[in-house]
Amino acid sequence: LPIERFPAEWNRYGRAAGPMRNRIMAQHAEALIALMHPTSPGTKNMIKNAHQAGLKVYAKIIPAGN
Known about the structure:
The chain is α+β, with helices and mostly antiparallel strands. It has a single domain (10-61), classed as 4-hydroxy-3-methylbut-2-enyl diphosphate reductase, catalytic domain (Cobalt-precorrin-4 Transmethylase, domain 1, 3-Layer(aba) Sandwich). The protein is built from three helices and two strands. The chain has helices at residues 10-13, 17-28, 41-52, and strands at 31-36, 56-61. Helix 3 links the parallel strand 1 and strand 2 (56-61). Helix 2 (17-28) packs parallel to helix 3. The termini are far apart.
């Protein structure tokens, strides 16, 4: 699989950098596979963006401690 990096510009955009990056990633993706901690706000936001972009989403919550 080809890998493309999408670094968040934290210094430029502060806390908005993560959601901005997630929107860009959703625009470039064909689908999303998400393995997430139950309380991860960044991954939850990425899943939301993927759904809004009409992507097929596979999400698995990994329980804390695993």
